[in-house]
Amino acid sequence: MTSPSLLFDLATLLSLAALLILSLFALSFILHLHDRSLHTHSLQNFTSLWTVRLLLVLLVLMWSLNELARLPLIRRKYLFPFRQESICQLNVVLSLGFIQPCFLMTLLYLMNASIKKRNPNSLLAIVSVMSLSMPVMFLQIVFVYFAPFSETLPKFMYVSSVVSADLKGERMVLCACPFFSWLVYGGFALAYGVAFSVSCWRVMAFVINKGIARRINVLATTVMVALPAQVVCLCLSWVWVPETRLYGAMLLAMFLSVAVCMAVAVVLLVVRPIQEALVAGGDYCLWSHDKTLRPPREEAAEEHHQPAL
């Protein structure tokens, strides 16, 4: 009989495989657009944010690989089985302190940049995203690696892993989220939710294209549902013992909320805008040689007066 934890790990692996394929597909779109813009003058205006979109996709790839390292199924067999506690600490710091905050800030930057008349500086954008994420990462490092007041606090407030045993009685280390890590990320999520809501309201006030308005609504709904769901799952994960089915289900729900949010963001902020930019520039789909897919130049140009979402 297959254990519930193994089923949860397999479901996570399948979801990660799909997310990795989507990320590689988006990465090929970005590189193709950049290559085409070097030879096509009409595409140069669409490549101003190509490095920011590249950062968004790379962060999704990093998060996927970090989640792979979190799985006991992968960590015990392939990743330093005698240093599993250290891997769990690194997983918490990277995920809640660097990758997810940077991803959310990059998403917010792309939303705000879509209504600016001037092409933003991509290097400045990347520096801004990293700088805004550094305080969260610094706090995560302090609470995970140094664990202040650990002698007077319960273990769940500062430990990043718990030792358990599988069905065969073998030692198994399960990654966990310390209370203070959740507190730091929850505070960031609260502030981010307010900023993201304001940004969506500003963009919607500017957009007149119904198709783009639908995309913004889908993106906003996804983020505003996934972010609180992740924070709630992190909080409720302390209620159950890590070996129980409910704990595994809670971790899977938390993982899926983030994975769906990232997938929707990649499709709406990377794949679709680049696809439309290629069509507007006279190019056509990467997988098709049918030139009848090209719309009239005037209609494509008029459509891209709207935010590139």
UniProtKB/TrEMBL annotation:
Protein name, per record: Uncharacterized protein
Keyword Transmembrane helix: yes
Nuclease is among the record's keywords: no
Residues passing through the membrane, by range: 6-31, 43-65, 90-111, 123-147, 182-204, 216-240, 246-271
Keywords: Membrane, Transmembrane, Transmembrane helix
PANTHER family: OS08G0346600 PROTEIN (PTHR34116:SF9), PLASMINOGEN ACTIVATOR INHIBITOR (PTHR34116)
Superkingdom, natural source: Eukaryota
